[in-house]
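Changelog note: in this version the structure field was regenerated for every chain. One regenerated record is shown below for reference.
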Amino acid sequence: MSRPHDGHPPAFPFGNPFRMIFPRRSHQSPKIVGLLNSFEENLAERMKKLKLKDQGSVLSLFWMRLAMELLSETYADIKVLITDLQFPVADWDEKLMDIYLDNSVKLLDICLAYSSELARINQAHLLLQCVLHILDTSRASLSQEQLLCAHSSLGDWMKQISLRNPKLENCSTILNGLIESLHLNKVKNSTKGKVLIRAMYGVKVQTTFVCSIFAATFSGSSKPLVDLHVADKFLWAEVFIDLQANVNGVVRSLASNGSPTLLKELEAVEVNVKRLYPLIGSDGNGPVEEETLQNSVLDLRKSSERLVQGLDLLSKEVEGFFQIVLTGRDALLGNLRVDNSDSYSRTENNVESRL
């Protein structure tokens, strides 16, 4: 897939891809139409909740946790929709099945990369805990050895945070693979199948958007961002286009300003670390007022506590989403008929080996 010169993944002008899904003269059951409309309306409401009220709310752990929570709700909704449609796995289009299984593995890979990054940041926090433990007293009571230890730990923290996680390297490539799967393919001549693929398209759009924001946040770059063009036939299309322009615009603005990190809580900790680092000095004898030092320590303590709390909550949401994807995938594979076709067996074996 070719990339434009600005380094961002290409947008896909789908036009109106649902001409082949819902022909004008096709008869649709009111019940099925109601199920689809309900799904799309719920999706639109979730997207509304993610719109930023101000630039300061972007890329916070709270926003990221909300985005992952709402994404999990959408996956729960698609499961309910499949049940309500009474659309058994045996009736799934083979190509749709292949895309679903392949995408599930991509999502599991992405979740593992994000969990790895959250764990890395959390691990580095142990250095700050050491510093705060040492400095939890008056400067006069500290020995030169203790000050040197605290100073060294702060330096080590800054070095660790500045490192890039190699497990995040492939996220952009994986995201591009998800984008390619957004192309809607023909399915069996089944109204239920067409409803399902339309609903799954909405799920994939939301998934791609959220994952691209996460990738940009963790990488500190706007390159992972994607700009998707969707057909105006969706009930959630207008809300999504507004949301995408809103969030992507703020992220690109922050990245262009050269922010050291795009994660709000982590940036606050980094600011306080850099403020405290010279105060204790490499020799522990800098002329610093006691009140100034204690205020800096207090600020670092507060910001680091907010960071850790946010990391823990987000980690649980990522793990929960991982389990939803894994469970859904395993349930689908478990329902495949053994004598259905060799292609399903090859797909299952390929997915298992990749996982």
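Spot check on this record: The CA atoms of residues 11 and 228 lie 5 Å apart. The chain has ten helices and no strands.
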